[in-house]
């Protein structure tokens, strides 16, 4: 409808609004975000209420990042005798409680902190002086006593509490999405009582992904591998806090790693120093050594599955995704090859769904990670056109750039070479890696042991980090208990590595295309 056709009442309203706009020169140019609201509780006939008369406020809009209640005049809402019953006021602290919300963090929950001596209660439960708790929609807040209910909190920001089973939303606040993959997604969540952050993996049980059967989402395999995750306990392996199994999905609550992926650390810095690599790599080797001692072969080690506890240099390393979607069996076996071929050992490709392989595959993957940490590019890639990716791996022809390896120590090069050895019985073992000359740095060893001991003490778990010296540097390895992974059917391996899984993250090649700067070197040749 055109303006001249508006009804008289609409035209009059429009004129009045125009006059108001012109007259209010000091009106703010932005609309503040009201992230929550505190509704005052209704006055009851039993007398068990805070408000002394009908002058009680209907509600308070929460706009600022902090809202305080107490007797002090400096509080956002100072309690007064003409509104709150005098018998209650005398028991209220100068600062009774504080509600905060970090508006710079998407979907961050509102947090209530008890500042009182006589108690602040949420839904009938005492918070406790100095303690905090996550506030959820329609939570009841009481002061001085459980029946003295003063406010009902209304959350006005969008959250996803109704997207998960009630058993989960009752205990955890569901926040933003941290990542998403073929099997599901990862959410940031908060324990409502402890206010502790966790990561929650949501794995859909649907066997269809983009119209194709996704063998990674087999419910039986998911639950079997979750049992493995809950059984392992090591400071350098991500811990599983809790698992919820519903009809449509499995929800796995994991500890949150604030430092992000090793992949992101490498891409941000280009490459890591030998000293820092030595510090991180020792932890990785100890973690994989523990898994092997428990009869578990990771089979999908890569920088994306190595997480850092913090952004600092003394961060703890955590291995993750070692059993979540890769299980003994032909289907997931093939998916492992199709999903991340850049880090696969030659014997996995040679098995071709017919033969078995052992835990030595993890040593090869560690070698690729080691390579990437030191120089910032991949040893094997489909982008190297002189040979297919499959043939590069099967022959151990990694891309060796003199410009990138020029400043790497000889022992570092030799260790990389021993890990990327095609012949399994000549490949270095985990014990040999720990005892390799490149790894012998007292400062690093002490720092790692201190980190692990501190983590062990705080978690109450037992840890053995002793290493055997039964293997010599160049000889065959001694007796090893091998957990064989047997394919149950015969299927050929495609050169295309096609898969419904997301394409693996790519590191920069970062080297000259000139032939004189780059040479291909086999990892099977004798040590220098």
UniProtKB/TrEMBL annotation:
Annotated Protein kinase domain residues: 172-439
GO function terms (MF aspect): ATP binding; protein kinase activity
FHA domain mapped to chain residues: 67-127
Keyword tags: ATP-binding, Kinase, Nucleotide-binding, Transferase
Record field: compositional bias (Polar residues): 8-24
InterPro entries linked: FHA_dom, Kinase-like_dom_sf, Prot_kinase_dom, Ser/Thr_kinase_AS, SMAD_FHA_dom_sf
One Pfam family matching this protein: Pkinase
Start and end residues of each stretch annotated as Disordered: 1-24
SMART domains referenced in this protein's UniProt entry, alphabetically: FHA (SM00240), S_TKc (SM00220)
CDD domains associated with the record: STKc_Chk2
Record PANTHER family: SERINE/THREONINE-PROTEIN KINASE
Protein name: Ovarian-specific serine/threonine-protein kinase Lok
Organism classification: Eukaryota, Metazoa, Ecdysozoa, Arthropoda, Hexapoda
């Amino acid at each position: 409808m055109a303006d001249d056709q508006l009804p008289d009442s609409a035209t009059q309203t429009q004129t009045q609004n125009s006059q108001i706009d012109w007259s209010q020169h000091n009106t703010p140019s932005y609309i503040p975000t009201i992230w929550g609201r505190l509704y005052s509780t209704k006055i009851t006939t039993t007398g068990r209420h805070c408000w002394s008369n009908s002058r009680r406020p209907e509600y308070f809009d929460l706009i600022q990042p902090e809202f305080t209640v107490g007797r002090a005049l400096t509080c956002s809402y100072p309690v007064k005798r003409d509104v709150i019953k005098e018998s209650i006021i005398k028991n209220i602290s100068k600062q009774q409680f504080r509600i905060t919300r970090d508006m710079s963090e998407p979907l961050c929950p509102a947090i209530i902190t008890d500042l009182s001596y006589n108690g602040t209660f949420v839904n009938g439960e005492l918070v406790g002086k100095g303690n905090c708790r996550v506030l959820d929609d329609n939570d009841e807040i009481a002061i001085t006593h459980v029946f003295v209910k003063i406010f009902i909190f209304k959350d006005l920001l969008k959250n996803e509490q109704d997207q998960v089973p009630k058993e989960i939303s009752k205990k955890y606040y569901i926040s933003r999405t941290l990542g998403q993959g073929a099997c599901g997604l990862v959410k940031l969540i908060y324990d409502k009582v402890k206010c502790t952050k966790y990561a929650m993996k949501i794995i859909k049980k649907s066997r269809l992904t983009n119209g194709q059967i996704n063998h990674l989402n087999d419910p039986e395999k998911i639950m079997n591998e979750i049992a493995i995750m809950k059984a392992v306990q090591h400071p350098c392996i991500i811990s599983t806090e809790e698992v919820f199994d519903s009809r449509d999905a499995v929800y796995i609550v994991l500890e949150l790693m604030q430092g992000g992926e090793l992949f992101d650390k490498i891409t941000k810095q280009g490459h890591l120093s030998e000293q820092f690599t030595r510090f991180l790599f020792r932890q990785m080797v100890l973690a994989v050594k523990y898994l092997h001692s428990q009869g578990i072969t990771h089979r999908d080690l890569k920088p994306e599955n190595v997480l850092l506890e913090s952004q600092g240099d003394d961060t703890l390393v955590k291995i993750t995704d070692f059993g979540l979607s890769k299980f003994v069996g032909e289907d997931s076996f093939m998916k492992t090859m199709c999903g991340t071929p850049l880090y696969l050992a030659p014997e996995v490709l040679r098995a071709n769904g017919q033969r078995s392989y052992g835990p030595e595959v993890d040593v090869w993957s560690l070698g690729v990670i080691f390579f990437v940490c030191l120089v910032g590019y991949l040893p094997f890639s489909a982008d190297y056109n002189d040979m297919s990716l499959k043939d590069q791996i099967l022959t151990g022809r990694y891309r060796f750039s003199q410009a990138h390896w020029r400043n790497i120590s000889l022992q570092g090069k030799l260790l990389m070479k021993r890990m990327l050895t095609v012949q399994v019985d000549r490949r270095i073992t985990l014990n040999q890696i720990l005892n390799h000359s490149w790894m012998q740095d007292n400062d690093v060893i002490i720092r790692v042991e201190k980190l692990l001991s501190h983590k062990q003490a705080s978690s109450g778990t037992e840890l053995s980090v002793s290493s055997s010296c039964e293997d010599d540097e160049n000889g065959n390895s001694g007796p090893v208990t091998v957990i064989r992974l047997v394919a149950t059917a015969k299927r050929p391996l495609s050169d295309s590595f096609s898969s419904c899984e997301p394409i693996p993250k790519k590191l920069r090649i970062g080297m000259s295309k000139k032939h004189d700067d780059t040479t291909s070197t086999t990892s099977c040749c004798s040590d220098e």
